[in-house]
Amino acid sequence: MIWLRLAVIGALGLLVSCIDGREEIWIERDGSGRADVAYSLPASAAVLQGGEKGVRRLLEDFFANSPDLSSPKIEVDTVGDRLQIHVKASFKSALDLKKISSGAGMTRLPASATGLAGTVKIATHGLNLDFSRTISPGLALPGAAFFPASQFQGRSLTYIIHLPLAATESNATQISDEGRTLIWEFPLLQSIQKPVVTHFIAPIPIPRWLWFAGIALLITVGLILHGWRRSRNAKCSI
Question: How far separated are the first and last CA of the chain, in Å rounded?
Fold first, then answer.
């Protein structure tokens, strides 16, 4: 998820290479959902932000200025020479995510997060959602192209999306749960050398309340037509 990933990485103003990241999103049939994001990076990357406490304050400020996110849980810990960041949050509508990515909370984070956020294109075709995201970590890690390949060995960026209905098309590196779970795993070196893209097309689920509303509308229209016919027959019989 772009906004949550930005909150975690951008808050640190990352200009280091050895990053491991994993973001996982669950989207329900009513459009609501939750996200679980975890990142591991050198503890030295957080020194200029005030260490653990400074990073936690930045994330708390982000959520305070992002009202479309709820129930945030923030964990920031140092394990050895690595800073471990784990953030969870919920949202009422997946459609609000685009608004969150450009909201007040996001504008308070360092500008270095632009490349890590990438660019998102969302379109609807009939009852299908077409989602595409281009991520350019190399733009956020200046000079990384000159680092030895061994610096990135074993480091990767992973994106997972759980959909309510199976995707009809995607470029996911792994697919499970009969097409409802899409996984993209990119070695960090590959992500820095050129932008990576996550893309899928999936049906848009119709919320249960909309089905009930449709049934109620049909019943209402039926009653109105029935009453109109009875009134018309009564007039004709006079």
Answer: 68
CA–CA separation, 135 and 138 (whole Å):
9
- Take residue 156 and report the two structure tokens written for it: 């990767």
Tokens of residue 216, six digits = 């109620």
- Out of 6-10, 32-36, 79-83, 188-192, least confident range: 6-10
pTM higher than 0.90, yes or no? Answer: no
Higher per-residue confidence, 132 vs 181:
181
